[in-house]
Amino acid sequence: MKQIRLHGRGGQGAALASQMLANAFVVEGKHAASFPMFGFERRGAPVISFVRFDDLPVREKTQIYAPDCMLVLDPGLQRLPNLFDGLSPESTLVLNSSKEVTESPSDNLKTTAVVNASAIAIAEVGRNISNTCLMGAFCAATGWLKLDSLHEAFKFYFSGKLLENNKNSATRGYNEVKLIEW
Hints:
There is one protein chain. By secondary structure, the chain is α/β, with parallel strands linked by helices. It has helices at 14-27, 117-124, 131-142, 147-154, 160-176, and strands at residues 2-9, 31-38, 46-54, 69-72, 91-96, 109-115, 178-181. Strands 2-3-1-4-5-6-7 form a seven-stranded mixed β-sheet, with helices on one face. Helix 2 (117-124) packs antiparallel against helix 5 (160-176).
């Protein structure tokens, strides 16, 4: 079983991203589960959401303390002292950042995937909601999910122009991500 933890702030789409990722894994014939964890339910408050997927049914519904991959939607969250606690060895970080990453923030990271998802989201969607762009970068960084499956899952959440804009955002995230091996 693979475990993914997403960190964002209220209004950035971390909870929705975990649902869309889980659905994309189901599109590929996998079993998946997702759920969010909120503190105060308000815009700007920290949000963590979780995704598990496997070839076998996923029954565990607890928080993920040792993720194999972590997506960070808000670049400001990198400064949290315990953000990288518990990362599994050889894990992957998918980071929304306009800055170059020159050193690994955790000894357990094998790969860091950096993309300026905020700029892409503003250009493609018209708002700084970086979730679909980071999910595209996730596909490129891990190889666990096909981009086409992600696009297919978007159809459950978006339609018309919004669907096309989010597909474009994910595609750009997939194509523009910079992978750093540590």
